[in-house]
């Protein structure tokens, strides 16, 4: 019989500890090793028995979650899922946690969600724990050190920064677990006059704005959270806002984005498939589609549709994917014209958009 995935819960709220314990123990493949109230108790438990996965509250008394996370990742890297509030401060801290090697961030359950028996929260947490349990520690160590790596910028001939014309190519990127660092590495390598980029990264609301703002400080291109009606312009990347779908539209010679409400697709909002489907309709062969690390299958079918209309399609390879889910599904569908390590993707984007 297969050994269940052991999880250590670290959260200062007794209510949240009880909720997470009940959710995780409801799955026969998962077993809560312990649920403790602060990192000092957690450190003691880890010495007694190494968990397969840790869920960590980022804002705690005595020792904050970030300090604890840095200690774990420097001494014994293991999969850590961050639980954070949706405040602006919580979002900034959560992004730092991802840079320090946390696998993913989910929003802390609210009393309203508890009363409404939020199945999305439950299913997402269970899926994430199962995906986290198979992540290799070497990949976590790479995540922890990736923010120190010097990115080699791609050099391409200069062009004027202007509204994207109907003959120019647009890049659409989809990512989930492990994607924030992958996207950062790609965008930091691109020159300031790169083609327009639209990105779906599975993240809760408020986190996407903090993510875009952080990238905007680091990159040569402009990075912002997409707002309804934003034009696609050279040298700019738009990040789909959390809890909304983002699609590409066209008015005459102008491409722009529509940010809209809607049902979850593949259990996600924003959904990569929703973005890719709009690119199929409005961009066709004038598109480069990129599917990065992430669990599940969101974006796989959309990437295949892009390939079928003549777009150039790229999937991240297994070796550099933190979670080889979405790219794997795309590869199984033969949706990717090329399968590339993360470090090659910026140059592939530049080569394909210059043609």
UniProtKB/TrEMBL annotation:
Substrates-to-products reaction catalysed: L-glutaminyl-[protein] + H2O = L-glutamyl-[protein] + NH4(+); [protein]-L-glutamate 5-O-methyl ester + H2O = L-glutamyl-[protein] + methanol + H(+)
Residue intervals of the Response regulatory domain: 6-123
Record PTM text: Phosphorylated by CheA. Phosphorylation of the N-terminal regulatory domain activates the methylesterase activity.
Similarity field: Belongs to the CheB family.
Gene3D superfamilies noted in UniProt: 3.40.50.2300, Methylesterase CheB, C-terminal domain
Entry-linked NCBIfam families: PRK00742.1, PRK12555.1
A molecular-function term among this protein's GO annotations: protein-glutamine glutaminase activity
This protein's UniProt keywords: Chemotaxis, Cytoplasm, Hydrolase, Phosphoprotein
GO terms classed as biological process: chemotaxis
Reported function: Involved in chemotaxis. Part of a chemotaxis signal transduction system that modulates chemotaxis in response to various stimuli. Catalyzes the demethylation of specific methylglutamate residues introduced into the chemoreceptors (methyl-accepting chemotaxis proteins or MCP) by CheR. Also mediates the irreversible deamidation of specific glutamine residues to glutamic acid.
Domain of life, source organism: Bacteria
Entry's EC annotation: 3.1.1.61, 3.5.1.44
Catalytic-site annotation from UniProt: 176, 202, 298
GO cellular component, one term: cytoplasm
Positions bearing 4-aspartylphosphate: 57
Pfam families in the record: CheB_methylest, Response_reg
InterPro entries: CheB-like (IPR008248), CheB_C (IPR035909), CheY-like_superfamily (IPR011006), Sig_transdc_resp-reg_Me-estase (IPR000673), Sig_transdc_resp-reg_receiver (IPR001789)
Domain CheB-type methylesterase residue range list: 164-355
Domain remark in the UniProt entry: Contains a C-terminal catalytic domain, and an N-terminal region which modulates catalytic activity.
Cellular location(s): Cytoplasm
Protein name: Protein-glutamate methylesterase/protein-glutamine glutaminase
EC class of the enzyme, as a word: hydrolase
């Amino acid at each position: 019989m297969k050994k269940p995935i052991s999880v250590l819960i670290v959260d200062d709220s007794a209510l949240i500890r009880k909720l997470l314990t009940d959710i995780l123990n409801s799955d026969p493949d998962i077993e809560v090793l312990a649920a403790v109230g602060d990192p000092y108790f957690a450190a003691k438990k880890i010495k007694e028995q190494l968990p397969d996965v840790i869920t960590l509250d980022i804002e705690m008394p005595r020792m904050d979650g970030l300090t604890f996370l840095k200690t774990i990742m420097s001494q014994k890297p293991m999969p850590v899922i961050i639980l954070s509030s949706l405040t602006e401060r919580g979002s900034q801290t959560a992004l730092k946690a991802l840079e320090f090697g946390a696998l993913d961030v989910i929003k802390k359950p609210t009393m309203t969600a508890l009363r409404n028996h939020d199945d999305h929260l439950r299913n997402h947490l269970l899926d994430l724990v199962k995906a986290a349990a198979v992540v290799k520690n070497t990949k976590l160590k790479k995540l922890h050190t990736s923010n120190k790596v010097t990115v080699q910028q791609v050099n391409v001939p200069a062009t004027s920064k202007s509204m994207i014309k109907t003959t120019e190519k647009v890049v659409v990127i989809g990512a989930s677990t492990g994607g924030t660092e992958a996207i950062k590495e790609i965008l930091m390598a691109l020159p300031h006059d790169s083609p327009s980029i639209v990105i779906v990264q599975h993240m809760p609301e408020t986190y996407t704005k903090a993510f875009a703002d952080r990238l905007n400080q680091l990159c040569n291109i402009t990075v912002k959270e997409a707002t309804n009606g934003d034009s696609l312009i050279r040298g700019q990347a738009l990040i789909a806002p959390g809890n909304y779908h983002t699609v590409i539209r066209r008015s005459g010679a102008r491409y722009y984005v529509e940010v809209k409400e809607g049902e979850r697709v593949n259990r996600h909002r924003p959904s990569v498939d929703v973005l890719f489907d709009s690119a199929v309709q409005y961009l066709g062969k004038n598109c480069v589609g990129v599917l990065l690390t992430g669990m599940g299958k969101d974006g796989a079918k959309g990437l295949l549709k892009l390939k079928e209309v003549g777009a150039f399609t790229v999937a991240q390879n297994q070796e550099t994917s933190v979670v080889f889910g979405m790219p794997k599904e795309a590869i199984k569908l033969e949706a990717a014209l090329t399968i590339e390590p993360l470090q090659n993707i910026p140059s592939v984007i530049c080569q394909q958009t210059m043609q």
